[in-house]
Specification:
14 helices; 2 domains; alpha/beta; 326 residues; elongated; 18% strand; five-stranded parallel β-sheet; seven-stranded mixed β-sheet
Length: 326
Amino acid sequence: MRRREFITLLCGAALAWPRKTWAQQSGSPLVGFVHARSRADTSRLIAAFKQGLAESGYVENKTVDIEFRFADGQYNRLSEMVAELVKRPVAVLVTGADPAAVAGKQATATIPIVFVVGGDPVKLALVQSLNRPGSNATGMTILATSLEPKRLGLLREMLTPNATVGVFLNPTLPLSQRQSQEVQDAAREINLSIRIFWVSTDPEIESAMDVIVRENIAALMVGADPFFDTRREKLAALGLRHRLPTMFQFREFAEAGGLMSYGINLSDVYRQVGAYTARIIKGERPADLPVLQPSKFEFVVNLKTAKALGIQIPGRLLSFVDEVIE
């Protein structure tokens, strides 16, 4: 074989080399990252996750490789995505949102999992306890569904005594029934009339909004759910179009034009998840790493949206605001 032909053949083989084998040859650990949201909706979180890794010495394509998968709010795709990464196999599996975490836990009992969930990881059967996970999984609970009563109470401050609030919940979310019960309990405590709309597709969102407008429902609270995260611009736009005060779980919704949000700083969460992932790569066991919980919450109000809706934010409510978007 001529030297030129040999070099050409070698280069072609390198290009066709399976990525798993290449990662093994390079010596870099392979991390799998699976999220229930879309890549576009998760770009800020990915950057924060990589920052957390880098702060611990792991830089993508240099000292660590990362494979990404995104379900775009279609939870039935998660099991297959997780299975692909487990077969690689990855050194650590990072899962974003409850459905992804559940799919990861069902797929492997040996590969370390670092999760971000909105509900209780004990009730999701991910860990034995928050302080001592006792299994191959640990991570962070962001208390997203547990904060629904707080969001409802803040929204209540803007409404007249006899107002009714519409609530969007997604029936495909694993914790949706518990989420619904918490919302109903909270509404009873503050003597607020609510109407729950179960929506998991774009046409269902449109139909529910038609009912809200037709029945003069005063405001809308969108439940904590990754599917709704992928539709935040659509939901914010619908609120503006129908002059409907809206409450959401993350500041990204308020930045997109929603009226208010109350929840945690999600970017900071993913930075911490990156740091946890690095600790596991270095040899620590998920069973020994306690599940983290957020300690800081932020209430964000978009005054530009309030002006467009023709409403005045009560002074008492503004006194609780952490950030105003003008």
